[in-house]
Amino acid sequence: MVEPLPENQFSPGDTSAALRVVGLMSGTSHDAVDAAACELRLAGDTLVVTPLGHLSVPYPPALRAELVAALPPARTTLETVCRLDTGIGQAFADVAARAVADLCAGRADLVVSHGQTVFHWTHDDGGVLGTLQIGEAAWIAEATGLPVVSGLRTRDVAAGGQGAPLVGLFDALWLAGRPGSPVALNLGGIANVTVVSPTPPPVEPVETHTFDTGPACALLDAATRHVTNGRLSFDVDGALAARGQVLPDLLARLLDEPYYARPAPKSTGKELFHLDYLLARLGPTPPTPEDLLATLVTLTARTVADAVRHTATEVVASGGGTRNPVLMAALRAELPGVAVRTSDELGVPSQAKEALAFAVLGWHTWHGLPGVLPGATGARQPSVLGSVTPGADGRFPPGRAVVGGPPTRLEISRPA
Length: 416
Fold this sequence. Notes:
This protein is an alpha/beta fold and about 425 residues long. The protein contains twelve helices and 13 strands.
């Protein structure tokens, strides 16, 4: 028999009240666990999202060192994978418990965990054969007592999709109704975009394309660590790049990468864009650190702009790369006449956007609704994403019956 919930706690099956959700994310920079808490409620066909706050907790140094040492192109062992799966799961669990206590006043209904991507298996033709995110969800459920949605990418891959990026649904609902063709841009380790194109009447839903454009901070950060002998993990405020000059020959070699010419949908990762990849393209005369970073900034800005310059009327950027003013200036220079702003201006904290987006995806999973839009990832059909690890009370998702159809818009609301 399920005990009734205390009066001050929401029931996940009761859509007349908000569902309080914590989204957890660690991206391709693999340096910290980000948590974003929010309340989600359905008002007609609009999903109203009220952010409750966000936090970021760095990985313990020893855990991060072991993770970095195991990532491609390095070789590893199943013993190491098991240790990392446990250690990352426990790190996510600690952050989830802190988010529930500090952001949710000790009361939440659901945790959604992206986990840590350690390998994204792509075929030479651009198809995705598999993807692996680790960080066992059972540790999160045990630490918080809450149900956990995890493993969201794999179902899309099984349906023939790329499995990444998965923020397209959030972006399309959030940017629906904005004029022209807005583009959501995430500047993490890898840059990805969601292109929201209006469709002619009487079709109401927008057409959405979501894909990785190439490296955002992956090569920049790898180069910074290399040229500073590990003293810096990233180019703070783009200071090194600002003192350099773009090297046309090096830029041309980098732009010759076949990935950029592949049609969308497509996805990539550090399996391709890593330090050895960069060093192999530097040529016989190594550039100065400043010139190398200036050239890599232009590489990121150019490949993002090339992917959207014929469609974008507005670019809304988020992720760690937005904190690099040199990169943002380069992006604006590549897209004259296009407004380039951060997601903060539209009510979504740029450093928490992906964690917030996964909270929204988890809300869809909890209610039995697909977490991808038709055609966005190349999947044969939209799928309900992820697996659910039950919480302390053993409650399972209520499914689609309690909400009916999926929302068609998303509105960011301020806390009361």
